[in-house]
Amino acid sequence: MHKPRLHLVASFDIAHLRYLDEQGHATQALPDFATPDTLLSLYRQMALARLVDDRAVKLQRTGQLGTYPSSLGQEAIGVGTGNALRKDDVYCPYYRETGALLERGVSIAEILAIWGGDERGQCFTHAAADFPLCVPIATQLLHAAGVAFALAYQQREMGAKARVAVTSAGDGATSKGDFYEAINLAGVWKLPVVFVINNNQWAISVPLKAQTAACTIAQKAVAAGINCLQVDGNDVVAVRAAVADAVERARTGGGPMLIEAVSYRLSDHTTADDASRYCPREELEQARTREPLRRLRLYLEHAGLWDDGREEELQRELAEIMERELHAYREWETDAPTAMFDHLYARLPEALLEQYDEVATVRPAGDEA
Amino acid sequence: MTAITMVEAVTQALAHELREDNRVVVFGQDIGVNGGVFRATDGLQAEFGSGRVMDTPLAENMIAGIAIGMAAQGLRPVAEFQFMGFIYPVIDQVLNHAGRLRNRTRGRLSCPLVYRAPYGGGIHAPEHHSESTEALFTHMPGLRVVVPSSPARAYGLLLAAIRDPDPVLFLEPKRIYRAARQEVPDNGEALPLDQAFRLREGSDITLVAWGAALKETLAAAEALSAEGVEAEVIDPATLKPLDIHTIIDSLEKTRRCVVVHEAARFGGLGAEIIAQVNEYAFDLLDAPVYRVTGYDTVMPYYRLENHYLPDVDRILAGIRRTLEYPA
Asked: What sections of A189-307 are H helices per DSSP?
């Protein structure tokens, strides 16, 4: 049987970026931004994110908070991404985002309020253009594409300065149509948007190998004709470097990018989940040795920038911040029941006045029962 | 001034807002050079450029989702879905985001956008092109659902929808896209949302209908007039939020009512209108409020579609049943 001759029309390579190995040794010269001050600040923010997650889980376990998704083990992705943006860039987060939200200036009390059942947590006092947390999987990726169009449009038609939209999602989200639709449009319209995928290996109980036959998530960008990179998501220097490069390229007209940050979810999916039902113990133990805080701490220790004393001092300082924010959260008074009507429309339609009055009279403001 | 069709009135409104407000962008499938499959965007890309009037890749959910990002960032996006039959992938974006972004950020972000879609039956279209599923969307909080029924109302209501600070689903009854011509001055004057229109005065019975079904409903009213029965015809136009007061006011006079819609009966908007009439005006009624609607079947393919859509005879039968109560 004669075999037809084929010729190659396209092929692809996926690059992986890493600066720090598991033992905290530099695998190559660190990028320019990685000054001692910046590294210490990244370490501090990751430690704060870990503390917030830890306390939030405890609050949930003691009935003081609703369901909460910890980002334990993935702090480098949130902090590295958040740190790479300018304040007036626009972030469209998913929901496992403690580190990124802290970097964006969202207060811990706001984060707790969101998971404590109060919409006002999404007011994001210090990140006014950012989207709220997004729970329906992958839908935020399309918002980010729309935001990116608007930012480019405002620059082109209205003389606004160049800004970039950045959005995040988990590995499971890359199975959804919204993901493909967003990266596809971003490529066709060359939008200033960066997609950061937290590949933490799990979509609740479904492991990555049951999610996709692709050997990387980054390569999904190839189908959309956009740039991509895989980074070590446990290496905050790599995440920060990759996102910052992508954001600056997008800002200067270089178009979109997909970044796959490879990490591991060391916690349950949320407090409503029990990962011991499906997560192999040995795999989890293995993953713990690669986690991001330990790695950066070892690097800082090797560089003479860190020791047990400084760690103790940091933990004391962060515990104080946490206490203050916890206090603010506990002082947070429940909104008036009529608040459900107040921002439904810009102005409450007449057709809803009767329902508003019913809520206002039957349940007076402040009655939480 | 030349008289224009409803689809031309849509184009005129889009062009007016593109000219007056540089935050307005128009996009969808085939809406650029091609001017849309019904030509609703004819000539807009030539006049305003491909930076403001854009063809998108083929993905309805994507069109809905990016509109949310654009609107939240200060633009005034007007997105077209080619047919209502292909709108269902967008329900996630509309229900979970467009209708609730303002609320879930307590007013920090909002969604001043318009989703346009041709809807309804009666043009012998392929499968999936003829349904009237407005009730799926009137159930969604935070959204407006608007249906024009004439060139002038298409122009004025679309201007209002684009200028509205909240999301609007603007459903264009394609059966009457070119059914009638009317002089519509391009004066930028919007018509009010959330307000019903009284299309015909009468004191014997109130007929409530919207979109293309008004054509047969008004014809039925004229037929009755020859018999000495005068029907009042009300077009809610904004289906959500609903102006029930105009309907109740009419009932004070007529005490009898029929609701006509193309959509399936069960859970259709007629059910909501009758429930509200029951709550607010039970004592006014001399007869139950009947519905003349599509059936609770799959919308039939076009050989049978005229058996599904309410026609003048079915509407008259519904009216007589009401007028003759108790028989």
From this structure: 220-224, 236-251, 281-288, 292-302
